[in-house]
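Predict both folds.
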Amino acid sequence: MNKKGQKTREHIKKCAAVLFAEKGFKQVTMKDICEAAQLSRGGLYCHYESTRQIFQEMIDDMMSRQDQEFDLRIGQNQSAVTILDDILEGYRKEMLDSRSSLSTAIYEYFSLPEIAGQKNALYQQYLISANTWKKLIQYGIDRKEFHEVDIEAVFHLIVFSYQGVRMYSKLMPVDEGIPSGIVRQIKKILVKG
């Protein structure tokens, strides 16, 4: 795909993300995306066949970006604490921003019968995230920056508290104290001294 086509795809996904965060997955149509991206139907269908294809690519992109960021920073021999601080700060900001949360859309998408039946697609995404986080936590332990911890349990604490707050933030106000407290406790569990 040429540069212009890739740029158009990125624009479509950016516009679609706003709609999915606002309406959830099931309520967004290709027509909605055409309007938001200011494309004709033909222009949109030239790049994507369905909202499912757009959303799946968005999920794949998010997972790939996170994994690449962790790998790059570990490969650069950066401090595990610095990497953790940066990632958790991003999570803290996302937990406060209910308008851009894709949690409802993710739940709706992965609960579709045709998606749920695909070798448990959500679980596959979970495993990718788990491997990425486990790599970072083990890196921090190996560098003696993190305490020896039950890596899987800490990953569960991180992912389920993050996703839980993101989901609840769609239903009720979430003040700064909730994500800040979660981040503080995760650091307390992991970071030495």
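Second protein follows, with its predicted structure tokens after the sequence.
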Amino acid sequence: MAFSFNQIMFNIQRGYYRYIGSGTGRSVFDLGNGYVIKVARNTAGIAQNLSECEISLNDHSNLFAKVIQVSNDFKLIIMQKADKLYSISYVWNYYNVKNKLELLNLAGIKNAIKKYNLLFGDLDRTSSWGLINGRPVIIDYGFTREVKNGFYQSI
């Protein structure tokens, strides 16, 4: 499936897509078809989009929501839409752990953190996770150590 980024941006400007949320560098909109678009608002957002694209392309663990399409300048990425989680305890129950430390020490998650330079603090937040087909996946994984060091020195 190929998306027209020009048409999507036109639709965003007209308010046709539901706004999901935003962080310091990106805004997220529901495309209404099983996908979301993450729109970079600054260079940090572009770096986060680039990180998510690289991780999605190289990872085969099914731990991350997949990036489906990216604009040439990385200002826009389209990703699988996940259902919202209201409590991190859903993730803990799914992985049969009792707390965030146990979650972050699971082999698959620990390997992903190391391989992609992910930050612990991002992975224990409910907002970083969603559900796809009843399985918890990480939906916000662009804030890597490199992005933090390059754009958020004071954090």
